[in-house]
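During the reporting period the student researcher (J.K.) took over the structure-prediction task from the postdoctoral fellow and processed the backlog of single-chain submissions. One of the processed entries is reproduced below for the supervisory committee.
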Amino acid sequence: MNPLLEKILAEIDQLDFQEQLDVISYLIARWQGTVNQPKNSFSRQDLFGCLRGKVMMADDFNAPLKDFAEYME
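J.K. obtained the following structure tokens:
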């Protein structure tokens, strides 16, 4: 048996009867996949374009850097 499930079953005895039923119905709904879970992850579609207009590129972005002039000779 799963250690987490063992812990839940051991602690469920401390709850009153109605709370036990609530926990059991939640676990059954979760097992069946009918519980709405909050969205914790973002997809690429969620992030696409989120920084539009906030990041600007310099006009001379591709120009050689002065710091590397001696290596470019």
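The committee noted the following: The chain has four helices and no strands.
J.K. will present the remaining backlog at the next meeting.
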